[in-house]
Structures are given as structure tokens and as C-alpha cells.
Write a structure and sequence with these properties.
Layout: H1 30-38, E1 46-47, H2 55-62, E2 66-73, E3 76-84, E4 100-101, H3 106-119, H4 142-146, H5 151-156, H6 177-182, H7 206-220, H8 224-233, H9 249-252, H10 276-279, E5 282-283, H11 285-299, H12 309-315, E6 329-333, E7 336-346, E8 349-356, E9 362-367, H13 372-386, E10 396-397, H14 404-410, E11 412-415, E12 421-427, E13 430-433, H15 435-438, E14 439-445, E15 448-450, E16 456-462, E17 468-475, E18 487-491, H16 499-505, H17 508-521, H18 530-542, H19 546-559, H20 564-576, H21 580-593, H22 598-606
Helix pairs in contact: 1-13, 2-13, 3-7, 3-8, 11-12, 16-17, 17-19, 18-19, 18-20, 19-20, 20-21, 21-22
Length: about 600
């Protein structure tokens, strides 16, 4: 396992130390408080009597090589500090000058850049973007005939622009933003379209911020990175921040490498993101804090540099969704919105920040690992505890006694009735759930349990004979979001199997029948979503279970006949199983649906077919 060391670099106006012990340190000193934070990391759910964590140990647990932190108090950067290494191969230490890719934390900075154009009258955030774009036009369709897309909608994710994950590139295959918007090679994104009525619902959209970036370029006549430099970074003295792709030479030696979840350095260390506004920003926590403080000052009408009070209020007020403003998420605590912030990730990085809307405090935490999300939140809770943040921490649960007889009844396997399950096991006098790395379940009420590392609960529902028959499952995802409502799982019979398990063992006909039944009764169920079936098929393909893989991909084609990707996966499965004629048939089908598919053309060439 990677050995991590904690590093601290001096910063002007900040008095910092290694803080490995609190001996002889005054309890009101900065050193003491930093030491408390480093030894007081807290999980998502607080359990009375459970110990806190040490930062260095948690970095090892999560296999996060490097972390950088900045804390804001009274509208100023109180302290900042780096931990670990910026590159697991070179062991170069993280310092307060190490820059990280911050993923979707770019969106807030892109929004404030656009708002400076609104402020000087160059951009109308309520006007159709197609009337402000000169180098590209958003394709019109029946949905845009109902309502037009505006820059305001792009910033608050209500434009109805399609969802698409962020895609990274290398210098030798780097597309332009226009190629990305058009879905043209070498871009790997699909053409940008509107697939929801603009202004009606919240739909998180990376392509939407690509459009915003192009609007800014067309209006200003400047490259986007230069516009942000002129309008935001220079006025706020953010000298260690850039949108430029790749990172400019003068900052490259300070740029962290990205790391996989196993703490291994990414093969190419740093990837490129032409959709800069959505995820291309590089910065330090201290520099990013200056942007956060600017919003706080502007929202309080407290001598901001670039943002007006009115536009700041737009940024931190809800629009199409109660929990999203312009490029920032809003956090409900105690029924009121006190905080704004964001979490963001890109290949090899995870970053996050949280800031109080009115009282001038907050924190920024950047990591150079895809495993950084939970660690960021644990650090945030520790900072909130030491600095007494208002209403930030969740309530503390008290454990209640667990009856051994009931524990035996709870243990077993539970299914949602489709293709998902979880196992409850009894180890000694404690219950564990096989999700979340076999997390311990803590009894906090009759029949109700929580885990330390996922917000939510598991509640067993008993029948009249006090035998556990169902369990209400309600846990957040790994980003802390409750995407689904509570779901009821029934206890499975000892010999019962899921469709995916039947498929894997070769009972393909029965598995196909069960999947078709799910499609017929609940076609929106996650078990038979295109993405899930595609991943399932590739898992079988990786195990050389060719017949099972083909069967799953055939189902995906059956359920999603308009998807070129489904046919591509089926063709690959036929090719790898030696059924070349069928592979050719389905690669040709891919090209019928997507004539620009370079992969299908390449595979057909390998199969001896010129297309």
C-alpha cells in the first residue's frame, strides 16, 4: 500500500505547523484547531460513543495519495495546508501551491464569468442563445418550439439540454468545442440536442455548459480561458488557476497527477477537457476560496470585486430546482438554505467545497483520487465541528439494544423483486449489510438501523408472527444524494436466484423470460436500463461467458432498438465468441444508426469488410 506522508508548506500571513500533537499548544491557537481537525474526521452518520478518524489514516483507508485544504472565516482565508503526495510515482509532496483538476466545480466559475458579460450588457441571460451565438446554432426541434433556451437556463440546468457524462481526452485526440457540440470526430460525445422542454425541469447537463462556453466565446471574441483570466482570475488574484487545456507550462510542475481508486497514478497523469466550463478548471483550494469569498461578499453587498449583489443573489437562489442556483448547489438544513457548494470529479480527481451564504465561512477540499468524495465530506464535518458551523452536522444517533432472537430473524438475503439484492449477516451480536464494504448496521430504533458511512436507514417490517419478511431500504448514493425514494425488499428463499445469477450459471432461457417480464411490467426499472444491461453483458464477456453475454446484449437490442451502442456491444460479443458473420451483420447495423461510428468501421475492417 502507498505510504503517505503529511506535508506542510508555509504560506504568507498564515502560521502553520505539522500539528502531530496537541501538547504545549494553546487551545485557542490555529495549530491546536488544525490538530483537532486532522484527528476529528467524522462519517456521514454520527453514532454516540463512536470515535472520530485521523486524516492520515483515512487517506490510507480510501487510498487517496494527496489532499489540499483551505478554510474560510470572516470572508478571509484563515489557513491552508497540503497533505500526502501529488504523484504516487514521484512522491512529490502536495503543497498549498499544488493545483488540482476540480471537475464540476468549474461550473460555478464559468457562471460567474458569464455573469460579468451580463453585467456589462454584452450578454442577455433571458434571450434565446441562438440569437447570441454566431459560430454555432443549437438545433431546433419540437421542444425548442415550445420554449427557447437562454443562458440563465444553461447555468441553472433547466435548458432541457441532454445529459452526458464528462469525457476526457489526450493532446493527440483533442477535439474543439465545436466538434464536441456537433458530435464530430475526434469528439466522442453525441451531438448536443435539447431533449426536454426548456425551462420546465432540472436536468444536469455538461453539454449545456459547453453551449454557455460557446456563447461567452462568441460574445467576447476571446478564448474562454482568456476571458475567465481577464474577468475573474486577475481581479481576484487567482494566480494559480486556469481553464487552459492543457495546463500552461508555468503551472505544469505544480499540477497534481490524477489517480485511480487503488492509488495508482493514471497512465497519462493529466487528461484534457475541452468543455472547460463544465469541468476543465485547475486551481488550488486557496485560489478557489477567493472565488467563493467573492460570492459571499457580493451576496452580502460587502465590497465585491467583480459580482454585483443582484447577480450574486441569482447565483445562490433556487431556480428550476430547489437545491440549485447558477453553477452552485444549495443545501437545505433545518428547512432553510444556509449553504452553497458543489462536488466535482474528473478522471483521477475529486473536489468539493461548502460555504455559508451570509456569514463568511466555509472550506474547500481537493483530492487527486477518484476515491476522494467520502474523505472530502469527513474533512468538512471535522472543520464544521471545530469552527461551530451553524446547523451543518447531522444529529447524533444513540444505539439501542439489539435482541439476539430478532437479529437472527433479520439476517438473510433480500431482493427488490427484480434483479437487485443485499445480504444481512450476523457476526457475533452485530448485523452487517454486504453493501458499502460490508458496513455494520447500528440499531437506533425498534427494527430500524443506520450505517456510519451512508446517510439513510434500513427498517425491517415484521409480520404478525414477528418474522422479518420485508426491509425498507433508504440510503444515499456515494455522493450523499437520495436519488430514489425508500424501496421495499422482500426476504428471499434460501434457494432463490436473481435473473443475473440465472444468466451467469447458464439458465439463460429462464433469465431472459424474467427480464422480459420486468420490461413488460416496469420498463423504467433500473435492472433493465440500457446502461445496466450493457455493463452486465460486459461482465459476462470478461469472464468468457459468451452465451450469457450475447443473451444480455440481445435483450438490450430488443429493449433499445434505436441505440447504436447496443448493437455495437452485441457485435463485439459475437466477434469475441467467433461468430464473425453475425458480428458483421450487427456492426453494419451500428453504421445504419450512426454512420460516423469509427469503431464499427474499424471492426468491420478487421473482419475483412470495407464499408
Amino acid at each position: 500500500m502507498l505510504k503517505l506522508k503529511l506535508y506542510l508548506m508555509p504560506v504568507a500571513l498564515l502560521v502553520l505547523s505539522s500539528c502531530t500533537t496537541s501538547k504545549n499548544i494553546q487551545t485557542d491557537s490555529l495549530e491546536f484547531k488544525i490538530n483537532q481537525i486532522e484527528n476529528g474526521l467524522l462519517p456521514a452518520v454520527l453514532i454516540a460513543g463512536e470515535p472520530s478518524f485521523n486524516l492520515e489514516e483515512r487517506m490510507k483507508d480510501y487510498q487517496v495519495p494527496g489532499v489540499s485544504v483551505a478554510v474560510i472565516k470572516d470572508y478571509k482565508i484563515l489557513w491552508s495546508k497540503g497533505y500526502g503526495v501529488l504523484d504516487a510515482e514521484t512522491q512529490q509532496p502536495v503543497t498549498v501551491e499544488t493545483i488540482f483538476n476540480v471537475g464540476s466545480l468549474s461550473k460555478g466559475v464559468a457562471s460567474i464569468t458569464a455573469l460579468t458579460l451580463v453585467a456589462d450588457g454584452s450578454m442577455d441571460m433571458h434571450l434565446d442563445v441562438n440569437k447570441q451565438l454566431t459560430s454555432w446554432q443549437l438545433p431546433e426541434n419540437d421542444l425548442t418550439n415550445e420554449a427557447t433556451v437562454t443562458p440563465l437556463m444553461l447555468m441553472n440546468h433547466s435548458a432541457g439540454v441532454m445529459f452526458s457524462p464528462g469525457i476526457s481526452y489526450l493532446p493527440d485526440n483533442l477535439p474543439t468545442l465545436l466538434q464536441i457540440l456537433n458530435g464530430e470526430s475526434p469528439a466522442r460525445e453525441k451531438p448536443t440536442i435539447v431533449d426536454k422542454v426548456p425551462g420546465t425541469i432540472f436536468q444536469y447537463s455538461n453539454p449545456g455548459f459547453g453551449i454557455l462556453q460557446q456563447v461567452c466565446i462568441d460574445i467576447s471574441g476571446q478564448p474562454f480561458h482568456a476571458l475567465a483570466e481577464q474577468r475573474i482570475f486577475k481581479p481576484l488574484d487567482m494566480r494559480m488557476t486556469t481553464f487552459e487545456q492543457p495546463v500552461p507550462e508555468e503551472l505544469l510542475s505544480l499540477a497534481s497527477a490524477g489517480h485511480l481508486g487503488n492509488s495508482k497514478t493514471l497512465p497519462n497523469k493529466r487528461y484534457l477537457f475541452p468543455n472547460m466550463a463544465a469541468g476543465g478548471l485547475w486551481s488550488t483550494p486557496s485560489d478557489y476560496a477567493k472565488y467563493v469569498i467573492e460570492i459571499q461578499k457580493a451576496a452580502g453587498n460587502n465590497s465585491p470585486e467583480v459580482l454585483s449583489y443582484e447577480l450574486a443573489q441569482q447565483m445562490i437562489s433556487p431556480h428550476a430546482a430547489r437545491n440549485y442556483g447558477l453553477g452552485v448547489f444549495l443545501r437545505d438544513l433545518g428547512g432553510e438554505q444556509h449553504y452553497f457548494g458543489h462536488m466535482g470529479d474528473n478522471r483521477g480527481f475529486f473536489a468539493g467545497y461548502i460555504a455559508h451564504m451570509t456569514d463568511g465561512y466555509g472550506a474547500i477540499v481537493f483530492t487527486n483520487s477518484q476515491n476522494g468524495s467520502a474523505l472530502i465530506r469527513e474533512i468538512m464535518r471535522s472543520i464544521a465541528t471545530v469552527y461551530l458551523w451553524e446547523n451543518y452536522l447531522p444529529p447524533t444517533h444513540t444505539i439501542v439494544p439489539l435482541d439476539q432472537k430478532m437479529a437472527n430473524l433479520y439476517s438473510g438475503r433480500y431482493t427488490d423483486g427484480f434483479d437487485e439484492s443485499f445480504q444481512i449477516s450476523l457476526e457475533g451480536s452485530d448485523l452487517f449489510i454486504d453493501k458499502f464494504d460490508n458496513a455494520r448496521l447500528y440499531p437506533v430504533e425498534d427494527n430500524q438501523f443506520v450505517t456510519k458511512f451512508r446517510d439513510g436507514h434500513l427498517k425491517f417490517i415484521m409480520d404478525s408472527e414477528s418474522k422479518a419478511v420485508t426491509a425498507e431500504y433508504y440510503f444515499a448514493d456515494n455522493l450523499g444524494r437520495f436519488i430514489r425514494d425508500a424501496r421495499v425488499y422482500r426476504k428471499m428463499k434460501p434457494d432463490e436466484k436473481l435473473p443475473s445469477e440465472l444468466m451467469k450459471e447458464g439458465s439463460i432461457e429462464l433469465a431472459v423470460r424474467l427480464y422480459r417480464n420486468i420490461w413488460a411490467t416496469t420498463p423504467q426499472n433500473f435492472s433493465i436500463s440500457e446502461d445496466r444491461l450493457n455493463r452486465l453483458g460486459y461482465s459476462y464477456l470478461g469472464q468468457q461467458l459468451f452465451e450469457s453475454a450475447v443473451a444480455v446484449f440481445q435483450l438490450n437490442v430488443e429493449f433499445y432498438p434505436a441505440s447504436a451502442n447496443c448493437y455495437d456491444s452485441l457485435a463485439e460479443a459475437y466477434m469475441k465468441s467467433g461468430q464473425n458473420e453475425l458480428a458483421i451483420t450487427y456492426y453494419k447495423k451500428v453504421l445504419e444508426l450512426d454512420p460516423a461510428s469509427s469503431n464499427a468501421i474499424l471492426m468491420l475492417k478487421q473482419l475483412g469488410v470495407t464499408y
